[in-house]
Amino acid sequence: MLYFKLDKIMDDRGLNINKVSSETKISRPSLTAIYNNESRGVQFDTLEKLMKYLNVHLNDLIEETKETATLKFENSISKVLNNATNVNDLNILVKDSDKVLPGGELQVFSATITIHSKINKDIVSAPFHFVIKIVRNPNNPTKILSLSSLFYRSNSKDEPLDDVTTAINSFAPIEMKSFISKILDSWLKTYKKIKSTFIPDIPELDDGLILFTMESFDKTLSKAFPILVKTTVTKDKYFSYETLDSLPFNVDAKKEDSIAFTIKEI
Known about the structure:
By secondary structure, the chain is α+β, with helices and mostly antiparallel strands. It has 9 helices and 12 strands. Strands 3, 4, 5, 6, 7, 8, 9, 10, 11 and 12 form a 10-stranded mixed beta sheet that branches. A two-stranded antiparallel ribbon has the order 1-2. Strand 7 and strand 8 form a beta hairpin. The chain is elongated and about 80 Å long.
C-alpha cells in the first residue's frame, strides 16, 4: 500500500495547505486529500509540482507500507479455575461464565483481530469465539483420540465469519504454527489443571501424534485440515510442533500483499 508523507514534510517546514495550494496552483481539495492520505488517484503533473516546490524526490514524498495484524485470544476459564476450590464451585462458576462445558471436555476462547496501519486508525474486529473439544478414543474412552475446534460469532452462531476465516486462511506457515501451538498449549494447561484438581476421570492425552481439526460454523474456513500434531506430555512441555513444518499448506507461499500476523494470548 502506498501512502503520502506530505503531511510530515509540510508540518516539519511550517507550511499550510492554503500557502502550498496558492504557490503550486494545485487545488485546495486535491492538496487536502493528499495531505490526509485520502486521495484515490494523483496526476503525474501534481506530483511533479509538489516535488519541484518542496525540492524532494518521489521516494521522499511517497512510501510503501504494509498493514500488519494481531490476533489476540483469551482463555477465560483460567480465571474461573483460580476462584474454584472444588468441583461444585467449578460447576457453578462454569455455568455462570459459560466458558467451559461441565466435565472439562470443551473450552471456549474469545478473540479479536486488529488491523494496524500507518495511514488509518487501527481496525478491531467484532469479538469471535472458538471452542476446543476433545474426542474420546472409542476403543479406550480414558484416552483422547483427537481435538476439534469450531469458530463462531455470537451465541446464536449466525453472524458471518468472513473476516476471521479470511485471516486464518491467509496465515503463512510460521503464523499457523504459532497460532496452533499457542491455543493448544493454553488449552492443555487448563485441561491438565481441571483433571488434576477437579475432575480426575476425564480422558488423558498420551505422547504421540494427535489429530487436530479446525472449521468455522459458516463453513468458510478452508485450510488443509485435519493435521497431525506431535504431543510430548511432560511436566515442563506440552506439545512439540516439528510435524507442523511439513504441513500441506507449507507449500503455499504467502502473497506479497498479505497481512503479517502476530498471535498473542491475553
